[in-house]
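G-protein coupled receptors family 1 profile domain-containing protein: structure, please.
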Amino acid sequence: MDVPRHELDADFIAEIAIGTVLLAGGCVGNALTVHFIRKNHELHAPTFVLIACLACTDISALISRYLFLTFDLVLSYAPDGIINFVVVFGLAALHSSNMHIVILAHLRYKLIVYPLHTVDVRLRTIYRNSAIAWIVSILVALCLELPMIIGVDDQVAYIITVCNGFYLLLSTLIPILWFHFYKVKALRSSTAIPSGGHDVTGMMSVMVTLILTSQVVAIVPLVTASVTMSFIDDIHLRNVLGNTAHCFLLLNHSINPVLFFYFSKFRRRNIDEV
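Here you go.
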């Protein structure tokens, strides 16, 4: 993978500072999310367990994305094998995070539209789906990165990079919109949500919707940077676009715990424990 080099100018230092804050806050927030979901038996439900799996994935994505952001300071003198491993792992973590988001959208769709058919959804199913997401993501990352490792010309590398960006965007956006459309359609002609459960279901729906939206929005700068890199001769501008994409992804992986704590009915108890 061709990682652009940076000069230690003010913009790069500012981007590293922002990335460091997002890394620290995101890792702590995601770790706390996993801790409280694991500790509170009332949260041992499919949606929350899947959010915990997403939090673990986000920690991996945060660390690898931060290594991309600070490449010149951390990995520039590392052996090629270590660099290739970090790149493949980072791509796998990013794709896995997106797949967990799609699984979350599908789960909420089933729980809301078919509540009577999903009351027996087992946690082992959630763990299995999370493991499958990681396996598929690793295979996708290897398929994307192996041509780069073997060596391809700049045009082919550009095509692979652009395809990766659009794949990330469309593979997340299309399923989310599909599930949302049919969920709204089903709810308009159904009384699936029992009376008295509207508040909890509504809060959960808002939380999940914001998580899904932030995931899609965060991918747009990555796609923009991927498409425009070959048309921009200014190296400084290219570096700014690339690091902006990294920071948006870091922000996305960091914001999910904030949404979880804000919309969870256990947020007061959890904040007191912290």
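Notes: The domain at 10-268 is CATH 1.20.1070.10 (Rhopdopsin 7-helix transmembrane proteins).
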